[in-house]
Amino acid sequence: MAQLKKAIIIGLILSLLGTLAIGGVPADAQGHFDVNAESAILVDAKTGAILFEKNADVALPPASMSKMMTEYLVLEALSEGQFSWDTVVTASDYAHYLGALDGTSRVWLALGEERSVEELYTAMAVYSANDATVALAELVAGSEERFVQMMNEKAAELGMTNSTFVNSTGLPNRLLGQYMHTGQPEDENAMSARDTAILAQALVRDYPEVLRFSSIPVVEPGEEEGHFPVRLLNFNWMLEGHPQLDAKPHAYQGLDGLKTGYTELAGYCFTGTAEREGIRLISVVMRTESMSSRFQETRKLLDYGFNNFNYHTFAEEGDTIEEFEVLPVAKGKQKEVPVALGASLEMLIHEDDQEAYNIDVVLHPDVINDEGVLEAPLAEGDIVGYARLVYTGSNNYGLLQGEDTLEAPLVAMEDVDKAGWIRMMMRGIGGFFSGVWTSVVDGVKNWFS
């Protein structure tokens, strides 16, 4: 196995496992880079590494970017077999009300109109149709009120700590009339840029089929099956092949989602994602100045990421770590166990930062004794610790969920059975006489000195 020639520190930092707090200070390398948005973030979709952030923990109205949570919950229900893409949904009074609501995006659902889940999902993901969104929410949960509870529960589950949902669409509550059920008329949904990125990462990771819908530039109207009487023109102007003339200057190679948003209070928002040469980035901008500016600022973010960051593999799965090829084991038939990495340690890093990383080894708290030593029994493949990247430079990017850095499991390479009482007694006797002999030798040396 290859060995890593890195400076390595071993420590038994039990209280820090999984609870390290992110610095939250913009990186020095970002000092000459900024975007014209009240809040923004850029992350690596694979690892959650943050490449840029600005006011990323401030909760703001996300407008129709809220629909990413609705998209997630619908796809989750589909994956669990609650219904299929072909399931027919009947438009309710509420869905019909939104279908007739002037000044909003809708597909004019008639009361009692029947549409398939796939048709409604297309209308929601492509055209941000509010009536289609509510129809799907009611299908999943029986009512939008219960669906909103599910939205908030899923937000907590995903680690979105600065988010609150009051409806499935992102519309201002005041527009919902008699159908408002959660919060007050002046309320809107709220998400921070970080939370929005967490949601987008989960959506793309868990249900990548969402990109099949979010990447559609337009669905033309028609009478044939699957079409609506209104043209479904995607509000995402960065999609290549978008037919709208105003959109063409914003086309971005590799961009295939995710969701725009606008209300008077929210301003112009956009969660984008693009993939180039095996790197998928997720960007969020909130409260930009105009419809065009949300795409201009997104381009700046994505260009910054693709032009300055690349994946670097610090260790491969199966690698051993120099000076830590074996670890001592207490109360085992063997006194030590060989260990190796159970996964590769790979991170998207700034091109100038490669030499600013070391590897810190931390033992797993569940398999050590009070003295901080591994204790038998251990089974081959057991996680006995973690190899954690330690960043020593000035750019503290951190990860989406608040961890300081990435880590990979360190696993036992063979079984270590617990030693029997006879073996432990003999070791104790041997240790005792070894200590006595050492004392005698030291005493003789001192007597003749």
Automatic annotation (TrEMBL):
InterPro entries: Beta-lactam/transpept-like, Peniciliin-bd_prot_C_sf, Peptidase_S11, Peptidase_S11_C, Peptidase_S11_C_sf, Peptidase_S11_N
Superkingdom of the organism of origin: Bacteria
Keywords associated with the record: Carboxypeptidase, Cell shape, Cell wall biogenesis/degradation, Hydrolase, Peptidoglycan synthesis, Protease, Signal
Location of the Peptidase S11 D-Ala-D-Ala carboxypeptidase A C-terminal domain: 309-418
Stored Pfam families: PBP5_C (PF07943), Peptidase_S11 (PF00768)
EC number: 3.4.16.4
Reaction catalysis annotation: Preferential cleavage: (Ac)2-L-Lys-D-Ala-|-D-Ala. Also transpeptidation of peptidyl-alanyl moieties that are N-acyl substituents of D-alanine
Keyword DNA-binding among UniProt keywords: no
Molecular function GO labels: serine-type D-Ala-D-Ala carboxypeptidase activity
Record pathway: Cell wall biogenesis; peptidoglycan biosynthesis
SUPFAM superfamilies the UniProt entry points to: beta-lactamase/transpeptidase-like, Penicillin-binding protein associated domain
Gene3D superfamilies the record matches: D-Ala-D-Ala carboxypeptidase, C-terminal domain (2.60.410.10), DD-peptidase/beta-lactamase superfamily (3.40.710.10)
Main enzyme class: hydrolase
Protein family according to the UniProt entry: Belongs to the peptidase S11 family.
General function of this protein: Removes C-terminal D-alanyl residues from sugar-peptide cell wall precursors.
Protein name: serine-type D-Ala-D-Ala carboxypeptidase
Native organism: Caldalkalibacillus uzonensis
